[in-house]
Every structure is written in structure tokens, then in C-alpha cells.
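Open question from group meeting: does this chain pack into something compact, or does most of it stay loose? Before anyone orders reagents, we agreed to write out a predicted structure and look at it together. Recording both the input and the output here so the notebook holds the full record.
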Amino acid sequence: MSVLARFLPRRGVPTLVVEPMRRRHLSGIYPIEDVSYPKPWTPTVFHSELQQMAAGHRSYLVAREGTEVVGYGGMMIAVDEAHVTNIAVAPAHRRRGLATRLLAELAWDAIGRGCIGLTLEVRVSNAAAQALYARFGFEAAGVRQRYYENTEDAIVMWCHGILEPPYRARLRDLCPEAAR
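C-alpha cells returned:
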């Protein structure tokens, strides 16, 4: 398959769309949230986050194929830093680059807002997510003990210098379809 063919829609296969999260997407997000996290966010939390998004303090995206929500991600903005709050993909759609696309889109959004760094927490047991974040330039900076459900530690990861041209080039290489 040619490189270009990977990005063209195939007959009968819905095109992936990444767009800002809206209330109408929540019914598709809840099932993904439930299977992705031992202690899923409640509808109240999502509604609160959407209100914060409207105020400019958050950014949440959904990935959908047709009308089906297949993933989502979000971040909160604190002055000149962006904190990735969550990235989750429906189990049937994992290992297809959707988390990469969502994280790239969030990183571009952070850059557009003038943020100089990205941060997040990740479970010590989630090697796949840690590998994804490392590809984006995140490095371990510390540990929050018993952060998840008061039982599992979190690795605090940081990615600095996201406004610099080398980081923008990295994003373009990682996810050309999200490039700006």
C-alpha cells in the first residue's frame, strides 16, 4: 500500500474525524471511559470539564468514525503549561494510531495557546502509554505515590520546549495528518 493510500478513505470505511468534544458526544464517551479506567469519571465530571472548556481552561477532543465515538482526549491549561488529563480509545479501535492522533492534536492546541510544556500522570503499570508519551518527548520527572485509587503509583512526565521548531517537526513526523 502506498503511503498516500494509508490516509485516503477506503470504500465503506468511515473517515476518522477529530473534533472538539460536545455534549452530544458524551453518550459515546461513557462506554470507553468505563472500560478504560478502574474509577471512571462521572457524567457530572464530564459536564464540568465541558463548562471549563467553554471558558477556555480546557481542551477536549473526540475521534469518531461516522457517528461512532472511538476515542477522546483532553487537557487543562494552566498559564503557560498544558496538563493532559486523559486519552482513551475504544478497545476495538486500539493499536491503530488513534491515541497518537489525539495526543498530537492536543499538543498542537497547546502550542497554539502559547504553552511551553506538557505534563501528565501515567500508571506505573501502563507501559504502552508510557511508550506513547516517550515518542512525544515526555520524560519521567517524579512519582506520585498511591495516586490512582489510593493503590497504584503514577509517573509524572514532562515534555518541555514544545514551542521550539524541533518539537513541531517531531509532531509532524509522528502524525502528519494532525500537522499544522
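Observations to bring back to the group:
The radius of gyration is 16 Å.
Residues 1-9 have pLDDT under 50 and may be disordered.
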